[in-house]
Amino acid sequence: MKSINERLHTIFNHIVQHNYGEHEFHQAVSEVIETLGPVLHKHPEYAEQKIIERICEPERQIIFRVPWQDDKGQVQINRGFRVGFNSALGPYKGGLRFHPSVRLGTIKFLGFEQTFKNALSGMPIGGAKGGSDFDPKGKSNAEVMRFCQSFMTELYRHIGEITDVPAGDIGVGAREIGYLFGQYKRITNRYESGVLTGKNPAWGGALVRREATGYGAVYFAQEMLRARQDELEGKTCVVSGSGNVAIYAIEKLQMLGANVVACSDSNGVIVDQAGLNLETIKHIKEIKRERISTYCEHHPQATYLENGNIWAIPCQLAFPCATQNELDESSAITLVKNGCIAVTEGANMPVTPEGIKVLIEAGIAYGPGKAANAGGVATSALEMQQNASRDTWTFEHTEQRLKTIMKNIHDNCYETAAEYGSPNNYVMGANIVGFRRVADAMIAFGII
Ligand code: NDP
After folding, report:
1. Where exactly are the structural domains of the chain?
2. CA angle 228, 244, 427 (to 5 degrees)
């Protein structure tokens, strides 16, 4: 009879062979599987029912052609994806990513993570992800609109408010969600607000959804510090990225009295020891859609580091909020050396496995994305609630709900890690809570 660890190893090898070349997906699966030994020990029914094997296989994967015409009249062709990973706890829910690096394996890693994150949020939603290798950067509004219309012309038949509810992610913000919703409404002849989240509050969106992922990550960091009898106020922070998650993480950090000294985009890093001016960043990124380097034109005391490593900037709190695998082992060593005390993931899987090992061994408070950035999807579920009841909540009420959700997620992870013998290990706590919620529902439904 094989030991639990041998069985987990066999399952993982099988997944690697059957999902050839999808390295990010392998990485995401490995991070979860590695923490499940103690759960299988306590609950042999999960192994008997082959829950891990089932949970790692998406329920459905859709790949489609997205043809569109650019402003010069040239035909362009992109590839669209939607992976419904798991619907045990509710309709599929997860964002759409538009970025040239998107491949099936990218979407599968994100959909896999999303399944556990959504379960952890405590909301009745399954896990999914989608997107395209389309790059909205440098495209005109008309080109983005034509692409979104073509993308939705295929996607619409696979989604619906009680089937699958997409939202934004990298490269998909309120503008793209608007074009996508417009085309869905036009094709289906239905004003089905609940089919997409991240909508503009002027036509069915929820207040706080735009801010939710960044704010939520900061609330999670606040709880991790509180558990160590520490606080955010006065701490020096760096936040990678300068997109939706990064901007609102910076905003909440500043509101709570922290000093954010650096942010970035894929070209370089801005360092402003006086504290970043968020109005300027919003103007550059949300209105002008320019590169972050232009920050220095407004604030000459700041420095721009072309292709710089943001993790080399000394800080007490680090918030990776850009993309996967952006913080590797050597950056983690640098953070520890510079006195960093907490790393909170606003992005999905931004720290490499080797980086995580360094942080955990150094005793740093490390909040994994599936827990720390769950505020975004949780607020999407609040948007679905408001759409279903044709209601609109105030900013204050919605933010209070977000705050409570983040505290509950933190406490569940913290307590579960201790219960399973790894106190302070939020990776362990998050994976076990998320896995058990999905697994119990799957067992209840029989073999489907
Ligand atoms: P945005 O597109 O708004 O911003 C992404 C930011 O990250 C930009 O500053 C971008 O720079 C930078 N970036 C993207 N790709 C790379 C790369 N390969 N190397 C370096 N920098 C890069 O996306 P979001 O803020 O929405 O998403 C950021 C992360 O948060 C992603 O991991 C996403 O999955 C995760 N997330 C987002 C949620 C949400 O609600 N939006 C919810 C939960 C997680 P540039 O402009 O130069 O490309």
Report:
1. 4-55, 60-192, 211-372
2. 35
**Structure token digits, residue 207:** 């207040």
What is the distance between the alpha carbons of residues 346 and 336, in angstroms, rounded to a whole number? 19
Atom nearest to 172 CA in ligand 1: 2
Residues with CB under 6 A from ligand 1: 168-171, 213, 241-246, 265-267, 321-323, 346-348, 373, 376
Nearest CA to ligand 1 atom 20: 266
- Using a pLDDT cut of 90, give the percent of the chain over it: 99
Tens of pLDDT, residue by residue over 226-280, are 999 999 999 999 999 999 999 999 999 999 999 999 999 999 999 999 999 999 9
CA dihedral sign, ordered 180, 185, 186, 188: positive
> What's the topology of domain 211-372?
Rossmann fold (3.40.50)
CA proximity to 178, closest of 215, 141, 213 = 141
- Is the Cα torsion angle 249, 250, 256, 262 positive or negative in sign? positive
Give pLDDT tens digits for 129-140.
999 999 999 999
261 close to 236: Cβ distance less than 8 angstroms: yes
Conformational region of residue 16, where left means phi above 0, alpha means psi within -120 to 50, and beta covers everything else = alpha
Q: How many angstroms does the Cα of residue 268 sit away from the middle of ligand 1?
A: 14
- Is 139 in the active site? no
- What's the burial of 390, exposed, middle or buried (CB within 10 Å: 0-12/13-18/19+)? exposed
**Backbone φ/ψ region at 332: left (φ over 0), alpha (ψ -120 to 50), beta:** alpha
Query: How many angstroms is it from 1 CA to the middle of ligand 1?
Result: 45
CATH node for 60-192 = 3.40.50.10860
Q: What is the DSSP letter of 293?
A: G
Are the CB atoms for 281 and 261 separated by under 8 Å? no
Distance separating alpha carbons of residues 55 and 29, to the nearest angstrom: 10
- The yes-or-no answer to whether 60-192 and 211-372 have a common fold is yes
Q: How confident is the model at residue 2 (pLDDT cuts 50, 70, 90)?
A: confident
d(CA 387, CA 382): 9
- Bridge partners (DSSP) listed for residue 262: 238, 271
- Provide the 3-class DSSP secondary structure of residue 37: helix
pTM to 2 decimals? 0.97
Write down the residue that tokens 């619907």 correspond to: 87
Q: Mapping DSSP to helix (H, G, I), strand (E, B) and coil, where does residue 374 land?
A: coil
CB atoms within 10 A of CB 37: 14
